[in-house]
Amino acid sequence: MSFSLKMALENTELSCIRRHIVNSVALCKYYHYLSVCIVAERMTIGNIIYLIFYHAIFVFFTWTYWKSIFTLPQQPNQKFHLSYTDKERYENEERPEVQKQMLVDMAKKLPVYTRTGSGAVRFCDRCHLIKPDRCHHCSVCAMCVLKMDHHCPWVNNCIGFSNYKFFLQFLAYSVLYCLYIATTVFSYFIKYWRGELPGVRSKFHVLFLLFVACMFFVSLVILFGYHCWLVSRNKTTLEAFCTPVFMSGPEKNGFNLGFVKNIQQVFGDNKKFWLIPIGSSPGDGHSFPMRSMNESQNPLLANEEPWEENEDDNRDIKGRSSYPIQRTY
């Protein structure tokens, strides 16, 4: 077994373990919350209202979580792959400069505007394709992913064009879920503190819920805030750490279209679908509107300062985020 295959299997196993942890914590919180509302005290109108709102949030939390897990990452379509003839020519050519020119000639027929740090066409030598803009190779999933953001071990899936909206919604509903549990259980915690809560089991339910909800809320709200910042700038996690390079040079604001349009690039134009986990992101993930194409229509966009130089995109890119680092290419 090769080293890369062994590492991929190990990462998959760890991701499955993390996903089981998330499932277990969610189920435990569900059980303990019902226990607090039903067992700790008699069923009152207030507790019934708590349970109604709790289940509404829980449904959206679960729905977005499973959409993040089971929505497969989208791969580049066939026109970005090298034909059998071009692949043979490319692999048999030993001169790097000739290989580079071959890719340039092939890319002329494709809507590809980003380059490596050295100005070369972005090419994946594992998938044998010319990478569309914002596409990267994930070593864990062993494939190129359109508009790749990062590989998330907690959902055991690659987050990209096809499921980034669902991932953001999952973070949002997770934050709301934890906040709702913490605020509604806090009154029971006060009763526990004053010694007014009967039964050892009831006390355990309250302490478990408050501790877990607060712990996850702090970590999730930071992560959600970071991704909200990325969406407002129309960036991916990879682009935040590795400035995209265009034919004219590095431009870290290359895909920034303005706050409203940036949000629409993820959630779509129809606002009634923004809170519902159904696909509404515009486009096909292979090409994206760019800042440079809008400057003639809006001169204010040209007043931004140029961004600093980027490192060579041909080398391995570290998918850095709040998650454990996964290697992408």
Automatic annotation (TrEMBL):
Listed GO CC annotations: membrane
**InterPro entries membership:** Palmitoyltrfase_DHHC, PFA4/ZDH16/20/ERF2-like
Task: Supply the name of the protein.
Answer: Palmitoyltransferase
Q: Where in the cell is it found?
A: Membrane
Show the GO MF annotations: protein-cysteine S-palmitoyltransferase activity
Q: Which domain of life is it from?
A: Eukaryota
For this protein, the Enzyme Commission number is: 2.3.1.225
Acidic residues bias (residue ranges): 305-314
Q: What residue spans carry the region label Disordered?
A: 299-329
Query: How would you describe this protein's topology in the membrane?
Result: Multi-pass membrane protein
Instruction: Indicate the segments forming the Palmitoyltransferase DHHC domain, all copies.
Output: 122-240
Q: What keywords are annotated for this sequence in UniProt? A: Acyltransferase, Membrane, Transferase, Transmembrane, Transmembrane helix
Q: Which family does it belong to?
A: Belongs to the DHHC palmitoyltransferase family.
Instruction: List the Pfam families hit by this protein, alphabetically.
Output: DHHC (PF01529)
Q: PANTHER family, alphabetically?
A: PALMITOYLTRANSFERASE ZDHHC16
Coiled coil start-end: none
| Record remark on domains | The DHHC domain is required for palmitoyltransferase activity.
Indicate where this protein is primarily found. Answer: membrane
Q: Where are the transmembrane segments?
A: 48-66, 170-192, 204-226
Q: Which reaction does it catalyse?
A: L-cysteinyl-[protein] + hexadecanoyl-CoA = S-hexadecanoyl-L-cysteinyl-[protein] + CoA
